[in-house]
Amino acid sequence: MTLPETMRVVEITKPGAPDVLQSAEANVPHPRYGEVLIKLAYAGVNRPDALQRAGLYDPPKGASPLPGLEGAGTVAALGEGVSGLSVGDEVCALLPGGGYAEYVRTAAAHCLPVPKGLSMAQAAALPETFFTVYSNVIMRGGLQAGERFLVHGGSSGIGTTAIQLAKTLGARVFTTAGSDDKCVACKSLGAEQAINYREADFVEIIKQEGGANLILDMVGGDYLPRNVRALADDGRLVQIAFLQSPKVELNFAQLMVRRLTITGSTLRPQSDLAKARIADALREHVWPLIGSGAIAPVMDSEFALEDAAKAHAHMESSTHIGKIVLKVA
Asked: Which residue windows are transmembrane per the record (predicted)?
């Protein structure tokens, strides 16, 4: 495959609102040892992109300064030491950054095949959310069949993924969302109860069910002590983001008396090896479920690469249900 010297990208011109995202031109990167170069068809849009745009989430050392943590396309070049992939293979991939571009490089071990029956747009919506949900709900949170699972933000990309995955595992799924329409969407995906947090207290509802064995939260702030109250004895809380403050007053005596576990993680700073292990687990346990149609990404909308600012504004309006993607090619 003949590669151009330059490519279209969307860059962050300065920290700020969505309009700081501007189209530009950059050199096509070259894959390093263990990496592949992907000619992207679509790129996913995620909350960490908005945090990076706002100057609140610096890319890790050595990563592209361009936003974009997932995408799907065709392998365009192989770095040294890569096996199991060939030029022309269709893949979706977790990216360290650089997804708002025509070409991106990433570790070969972080690539997964485009599942059977999915479009490139759908495939681009998989990696960031599925890596995050599987590693935190299954690997870290240890969700088991029959357990009561509460995920906040059920209509988000993370939420729609977590609902489906937990349901296929045989868990009882509960979620919160900010409108009746979003609650209906969550229930259609397998949630037993979808709680409109503007109208009802999720703590009291979950406690009536016996408490949550596992909670996945990305809100933080005053949700932290409320989550603790909503947990069953021996329950686990996994924190993956903070839409509100990461700082809160918490009575840790409850953790001791009720044997609670509070943990959490963020995906981007983890080692390449850790991400490769998650990819291996997804390939074995989750990709067959996607291929069979048991799980599917929930798609909200598509924007042109040059309209990334509009995509961010739409995401930050919190009116979307599911994933937003950028059409690159």
From this structure: none
